[in-house]
Design goal:
With 178 residues, this protein is mainly beta. 7% of the residues lie in helices and 37% in strands. Strands 1, 4, 5, 7, 9 and 11 form a six-stranded antiparallel β-sheet that branches. The protein starts with a helix and ends in a 35-residue tail after the last strand. The relative contact order is 0.25.
Length: 178
């Protein structure tokens, strides 16, 4: 089940959900409107699942950064979010989609216990300018059933992520990363 805006607010007050920085005006009926952080990682050249991705990092200026098609950008949420009690689901929203921006299509699930600034996969259908701290999507919280198992306590490769992280699939491929 999905938490309503008032339930998210109550869970924050009870310490069951963390959103930092938190702005109560960003609550909607069933979600929290999250924002784009101030850094973009631009993935260069061809990519190989068996090798680390080459990239350059760029701070998004207050005047904006033009995203262009056929480039993979990795961004980061402004907010760090987490909950030991609830799973999270991070998505873009209609306002970003109407600009031709696809954000975080492949990995929207934030496991119970994962407290992170989310790495965002970003693609642009047409050239579009983005700005730091602009609303970029919606975060929902979901009730988890069964015995809780905190993601931070798992031997998972992304458990310590606190910002933009490239794919580390190469760690699973024999001979990968070399």
């Amino acid at each position: 089940m999905i938490l309503t805006g008032p339930a998210i607010s109550a869970a924050i007050q009870a310490g069951e959900i963390t959103i930092d920085p938190y702005d109560p005006t960003r609550l909607s009926p069933n979600a929290y409107d999250w924002r784009l952080g101030d850094t973009i990682r631009i993935c260069a050249g061809d990519m190989d699942a068996a090798a680390p991705t080459e990239f350059t990092d760029q701070t998004i200026p207050t005047t904006g950064l033009l995203l262009v098609p056929e480039v993979l950008y990795l961004g980061v949420t402004l907010e760090k979010t987490g909950s030991e009690m609830y799973a999270q689901m991070l998505n873009g929203d209609r306002t970003i989609g109407a600009l031709g921006i696809w954000v975080h299509v492949s990995a929207p699930l934030g496991h119970q216990g994962h407290a992170i600034r989310w790495t965002l996969e970003i693609r642009a259908a047409r050239p579009v300018r983005v700005y730091p701290s602009m609303t970029f999507g919606k975060l929902v919280f979901l009730t988890a059933f069964g015995t809780p198992s905190s993601y931070q306590q798992q031997p998972a490769k992304y458990a310590a992520t606190d910002g933009i992280d490239i794919s580390r699939l190469f760690e699973e491929i024999p001979g990968g990363g070399s």
